[in-house]
Automatic annotation (TrEMBL):
The keyword Cytoplasm applies. The lineage of its organism: Bacteria, Pseudomonadati, Bacteroidota, Flavobacteriia, Flavobacteriales. Transmembrane segments: none annotated. Pfam families: TACO1_YebC_N, Transcrip_reg. Residues 79-234 form the TACO1/YebC-like second and third domain. This is Probable transcriptional regulatory protein EQG68_07075. It comes from the Bacteria. Belongs to the TACO1 family.
């Protein structure tokens, strides 16, 4: 198994957001997808992917439809994705993906978390290069041969593929998302969920005491309503 498998295993073992936070994140994903390609999922591949993720998270259909409708409102005109970079204590790099309608508020909040926890908010590009930007797809395992599928999907950018109790997961570079999505749809293979992740190229081992310091900062960041995802280089 490769780096994506180990990264996924560590993330799965770690506690993650409550269901309400998950729905909030998906709602923001819908807003960004509609702003980018319109409200029709048939012609908007990004929106199609987010709706699949909403279904996988058991998000009610009414919530999805409301989010799509809300995305067309003027209130979301200033909504944008912003990336923050910095260092936690003990030299741990942190990358934060946010979706916000008030960048000044988000910047002030993120900066305050770093300051309160002895971290440092960095400049653009200061840590992003330490992470590989990847895309992933989860499909049902039934009727699929993992090794055969891997050979077939290499041509579309898939670099790592493995099975777990929830199906088959494929990882590829960020820019391969569209080609893989199209090929799976052409093959009538159900996409259970899909998304993007940033996998650290190198992780750093820390002591339990140091881990507690880093976790304190991570928890503050993850609780922020504007934060979508948080990635770091701490070994878990």
């Amino acid at each position: 198994m490769g780096r994506a498998f180990e990264f996924r295993k560590a993330r799965k073992m770690k506690r993650w957001s409550a269901m309400a936070k998950t729905f909030t994140r998906i709602g923001k994903d819908i807003v960004m997808a509609v702003k980018e390609g319109g409200p029709n999922p048939e012609t908007n591949s990004r929106l199609r992917a987010v709706i699949q993720n909403a279904k996988a998270a058991n998000m009610p259909k009414d919530n999805v439809e409301r989010a799509i409708k809300k995305a067309s409102d003027k209130d979301t005109a200033n909504f944008k994705e912003v990336l923050f970079e910095g260092y936690a204590p003990h030299g741990i790099a942190i990358l934060i993906e946010t979706a916000t309608d008030n960048n000044n508020r988000t910047v002030a909040n993120i900066r305050s978390y770093f300051n309160k926890c002895n971290g440092t908010l960095g400049t653009q590009g200061s840590v992003e290069f330490m992470f590989d930007h990847t895309c992933n797809f989860r499909i049902p395992a039934e009727g699929q041969d993992v090794e055969e599928l891997e050979l077939e999907m290499i041509d579309f950018g898939v670099e790592e593929i493995f099975a777990d109790e929830d199906g088959i997961l494929m990882y590829a570079p960020f820019e391969s998302f569209g080609a893989i999505q199209k090929e799976l749809e052409n093959r009538n293979i159900e996409i259970l969920s899909s998304g993007f992740e940033r996998i650290p190229q190198i992780t750093k081992e820390v002591t339990p005491e140091q881990m507690a310091d880093v976790e304190k900062l991570l928890e503050k960041i993850e609780e922020d309503d504007d934060v979508m995802n948080v990635y770091h280089t701490m070994q878990e």
